[in-house]
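subagent[fold] <- orchestrator: predict structure for attached chain, return tokens only, no commentary.
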Amino acid sequence: MNELTRIRVEMFRRGIFDFITKPGRKRHAKQHEALCALTDPDTRELMYGGGAGGAKSWTGAAWETFSALAYPGTSYFVGRNHLTDLRKSTFVTFIKVFNRYGLREGEDYTYNGSYHYFQFRNGSTIDFLEVGYKPGDPLYERLGSKEYTAGWIEEAGEIQEKAFEVLRSRVGRNGNDRYGIAPVIFITANPKKNWLYNRYYKPHVEGALPSDIRVILSLVDDNPFIESVYKDNLEKLTDKVAKDRLLRGIWDYDNNPNALIDRLALDALFNNPIADRSGHHYLTADVARLGSDRAVIMIWRGHTVIHIEEMPLSRIDVLAGRILALMQQYRIPYYRAVADEDGVGGGVVDICRIQGFQNGGKVFNGENFVNLKTQCIYKTASDVNDNIYSIDCALTSKQTETIRTELEQLQNAAPDKDGKMKAKSKEDIKRDIGRSPDYSDAFIMRKYFDFKRVQNDRVTTVVNDYPV
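subagent[fold] -> orchestrator:
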């Protein structure tokens, strides 16, 4: 390690970050602010980003490099959805940082290509972690044995919130007390309407972030070192949403082009004065497995939700008992109540003698959808856009945001090989929002009764849109 680098490491120890910029030249103020936050003993999470070209990757690589050099024997990670992206992009940034500050391969550091980590001469390490969702490891147990001082999640909008939670539990486990290092997680991302929006951006603009969580928004114009052609390329983007996100750093960007529910219609859904409130009461229920997901029960008057209950952990007998009690309270007969029948939901259907909703069931009226759930998704979205639905019940702000987020995930997908309409899969939604879409699943089941007419306690198929 050359003398200049040694001096800069010592400067880092004292919390002085001018080594990032050239002496007497421009300084990246947002980057400086981020590095100060990352070494603040009270910071536990820092979300840095907001647009492309804000020097997110350089900041993360510089912070971890100098942390590793300054504190012997410590360990860090950089995680991303796919390892190939880490190798093609983030790895290259680390090498640029090493070269910029005079670190020599073989003398100051080595790279293990088999296990994907940097090893420094003082015993510190930086691991490259693939943290994308794997069906065979939904709880991310492969990350559960890792012990790190601190860590960085790159392009966090690509990963599940569950992966973040597991990684957050693995920091603060190596040298933190010895050196007085905060167990911080650094999150870099471009705007994304998923868990990042709900966890960081929205509380940030509302002034509601906990004191140990920081958000710093940086755009391409904040970076004095960016190549001019980089911004020119962003300016040339023709996709409005991409331009809003990457150039302007807008988190409340316009509708996803695949979204089935219009944004204005979604805003109007809550306490919609012109929605359908006529007719009978109905009950819809999305059934949770014990210790998995949650049960959500909705009571309807016409096409308006008037009551919602959530049961985080539900034994079948307990859930069935609650459904029966609500049916009695609102005078709902068994043929106007429905629960998803897939998996353990079949037990609730049997106990309560209510209608069973099969996600992969046959569509009504021979319409061109792959299955019953897809048909209900498309028809529900169309009716929300037509202001037929409303949610008129007491909700916490968290419940409101949860419902909004899940309904935003009702999106079209490429037709199947037979040309039948498809919707974004539940697994893809889980990956994007980090949880099961239980509220939207219960919501779209109301459409089931629009395909059925109750006559003398007998259920028959009908073609007209709304039963009387």
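orchestrator: received. Logging for downstream: The longest strand covers residues 304-311. Residues 415 and 421 are 5 Å apart (CA to CA).
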